[in-house]
Design goal:
heterodimer; A: alpha/beta; Rossmann fold; six-stranded mixed sheet; 10 helices; 34% helix; 28% strand; B: six-stranded mixed sheet; 9 helices; 26% strand; ATP binding (chain B); AAA+_ATPase (chain B); ATP-binding (chain B)
Amino acid sequence: MNSTISINNLSKSYGDVSALKEINLNIKSGELFGLIGPDGAGKTTLFRLLATLLLPDSGSAALCGFDMVKKYRHIRNILGYMPGKFSLYQDLTVLENLNFFATVFNTRIEDNMDMIRDIWVQIEPFKDRPAGKLSGGMKQKLALCCALIHQPKILLLDEPTTGVDAVSRSEFWQMLKGLKTKGITIVVATPYMDEANLCGRVALMQSGEILSLDSPSGIIASFEKDLYSFEAKDTYQLLLNLRAYPFVNSVFLFGQSVHYTDVRDVVVLSDLKDYLKSKGQDHVEIKQIAAGIEDCFMALSQQNTVQK
Amino acid sequence: MNSDKKVISVRNLTKKFGSFTANDDLSFDVYQGEIFGFLGANGAGKTTAMKILCGLSYPTSGEIMVAGLDVYKQREELKRNIGYMSQKFSLYEDLTVFENIRFYAGIYGMSLKDIKLKSDDLLKKLDLVHARNKRIGELPLGWKQKLAFSVAIFHNPEIVFLDEPTGGVDPVTRRQFWDLIYEASRNGITVFVTTHYMDEAEYCNRVSIMVDGRIEALDTPEGLKNKFEAKDMDEVFLRLARKSNYKE
């Protein structure tokens, strides 16, 4: 099957800073694809290139077969883009904003209601309110409606859930699931590692590079080490003690537990228990656990740093 | 570590904007050296309460003491005894690392000699000696955030208020940031922190969750998980915050 988005050796620098380093990526039709990474990973630069708002330094990309540079006008008709920063007209009302975007794309709200109905009904009660006076969650819903009003084939969402509380975040992902059933290819960027599990496939990104590209379960399966979770009364002391252990490979806080990997292939847990006891930590609970996306991201990003 | 000395004491705090009640009869205490997580959905009233605790806004009613000082009558003194950092604004991008430290420490009345001595130690600790004369704008976000936190506690305040300090920061740096928080807490500084990362809520000694201007739950993360029979704080938060009646 042909890729809806195909990216080849795409690079972009700003002065001395290389924001994207020879990225290769193919995204299939109907995928819900996640770009997962912290600030500075290159997510926004990649979106701006795909949205034909920036020119690459080298490399190429095609969306639905249209070349990003040569056929940018075609791409703009089939693409919906929601930037990270709220970019609607604050002094126009909710309805005026939606009307404006429909008109720009030479269409009408009525003709596209099927596409946006589920989201629109949630903001319709405020349709006469200036967009600038909406709450964060409502602004986001309006921005999504405006990005969808011309029935795009591809939807790019740049950090739609950043700074949004856990409730609105989970509602937003529900909306994306609904859109996926309409056959739109969705690419969503997020710094929240836990949101990776809601995507079909993800690219873990850092400093302009893709660290790993797979399904969330595939990424988790590639975690090489045995991972152990430690719990004790004083979590911070536990962290300091484990960090000082001679055979430590990695040790990270995870909620009220500490995740630990060892440099040795075979880990004798009783040795670790004795060690912690000698440091005054008697009641430590240790269990082997499956890695999560965040464990994988940190392991990959550290490997990547060491290699340099 | 935690003591029984109260550094924040809030009794019946109410704040109204016209007919809208942003904070509805809040009462809670925070103890010295405690890491206190202040959670709530967008619009729940966290920022309003935080502004009052920092002496930036008057409550409509209630008795509130911060660092032993009254938020109605001793606001200027109060401000000298607290530190503040947010993700949105902390350091001046076009000043250098040292200029930022000197600026903030100077505002809090530290002598230039003390500032120089202490900043050398700090830069060593953060591994930023080479960046002393670099502009903040040139530093990666993770370094900026760690430096911003250190600057916020540079004058050794009793309490530091952190408003979503780790947004957008990579997971390794986020944990390094929490290392600094734990260290400050061990040195007796009380940490009052808001976050949208629910795993970070579990790093706190106690957590309060606000819904529609009221504190709906306040306990240790363990206590909250037991009470709501939830596997993690995310679940606790979703259960409570979904009860919200907040309408536009």
